[in-house]
Write a structure and sequence with these properties.
The protein is α+β, with helices and mostly antiparallel strands. The chain has helices at 12-22, 35-40, 75-80, 82-87, 89-96, 101-106, 109-115, 122-128, 146-149, 225-231, 238-251, 262-284; strands at residues 5-7, 26-29, 48-51, 61-64, 66-70, 132-137, 140-145, 150-152, 155-156, 163-169, 176-183, 193-201, 207-215, 222-223. It has a 5-stranded antiparallel beta sheet. It has a 4-stranded antiparallel beta sheet with strand order 11-12-13-14. A 3-stranded parallel beta sheet has the order 1-3-2, with helices on one face.
Length: 286
């Protein structure tokens, strides 16, 4: 840490200029909850840290139709925002699942996403909610569906010269409900498997749309598209939910480790997808 230079730009343009100047020798620091652990453990050795706290407006959470969450909004601020609790409760639930209050008070939702950790909690909920990532860089800005933001193990679509400026989450359709379920050995651990599910019902009670995000089911957070497709137009019976669980397990590709074998985690995906869908469907019924 002794030779790390700390810079605190006061605008996005200035931050991008620093990233352009130092390339992959620079790292953005938001809440520092993951970055400082990586530096402490010698996994990365940045020469320059670019702090975002001096840039006005990045802690903003706006809910005018869609929800917009700025790069410095903490987990706690997102979780406790009245509009998030009322209109995007699935996100509030996933945010509450993140570690301790101390971590949530410092760590940011955008930093969590930019870190690209496959067992972090919010990504599964963001996939289920149809979130978009707004990225700014030297060539302007681009927006990606969140599931396309995650490319490989702790690898994202961000270039070293780019910054994740904002997450955007669309208004959820009428008759929608969601649930985030975390499976962990102890409540404060990272998830072994996490499932975010959102169900929208048609007027006749069948499933108009289901979206399912998975954490811990592969090298990146995943969207379970085959399970979603099987539910389209279906009645959400126990059999339909069980089949969706089996399909999600089949399209997941977990890594076996000290928490369990790949086969065990696939089974947990099956079980937790079924449970999360059931809870989401109940919430959609009001
Ligand atoms: C003990 C401990 C337990 C934890 N448990 C959990 C848990 O159970 N569930 C969970 O989901 N998370 C958990 N976390 C991680 C936590 O959610 C962090 O807050 C989050 O991963 C990173 O947010 P941050 O603001 O601290 O980012 P930082 O640590 O500052 O940055 C993380 C990475 O993202 C990059 N980055 C940050 N912001 C941007 C940006 N705007 N644009 C581009 N790159 C950016 C940084 O360069 C760095 O590479 C835990 C962390 C710790 C230390």
């Amino acid at each position: 840490m002794a030779n790390v230079e700390y810079r605190e730009p006061t605008s996005i343009e200035e931050a991008l200029a620093l990233l352009g100047q130092y390339g992959d020798e620079a790292k953005i620091i938001a809440g520092g909850q993951s970055l400082l652990v990586m530096i402490r453990d010698g996994l990365i050795r940045p020469r320059v840290l670019v702090g975002l706290q001096g840039i006005p407006g990045l802690s903003t959470i706006q809910a005018n139709g869609e929800l917009r969450i700025g790069a410095m909004a903490t987990h706690t601020a997102v979780e406790r925002h009245p509009a998030v609790q009322q209109r995007w409760p699935l996100l509030a639930e996933a945010e509450r699942a993140v570690s301790t209050l101390q971590i949530r008070n410092r760590g940011t939702l955008v930093g969590n996403v930019a870190h690209g950790f496959p067992t972090a909690d919010p990504p599964a909920a963001l996939i289920a909610l149809g979130a978009q990532a707004r990225i700014v860089g030297p060539g302007g800005e681009r927006t990606l569906p969140i599931e396309e933001f995650f490319i490989g193990f702790m690898e994202t679509a961000l270039q070293p010269t780019e910054l994740l400026a904002e997450l955007r989450i669309p208004a959820q359709p009428a008759r929608s409900g969601g649930a985030y379920l975390k499976y962990a050995m102890r409540p404060l651990d990272f998830s072994i498997v996490g499932v975010g599910a959102r169900v929208t019902l048609a007027e006749d009670g069948t499933c108009a749309e289901a979206r399912i995000g998975l954490n811990g089911a592969g090298a990146t957070p995943l969207r379970a598209r085959q399970a979603e497709a099987a539910l389209h137009g279906a009645r959400l019976t126990d059999e339909a939910l069980a089949e969706a669980g089996r399909l999600a397990a089949a399209e997941s590709d977990p890594v076996g480790d000290l928490d369990g074998s790949a086969e065990y985690k696939r089974k947990m995906v099956e079980v937790f997808v079924r449970r999360a869908l059931r809870r989401a469907a109940q919430a959609a019924q009001g």
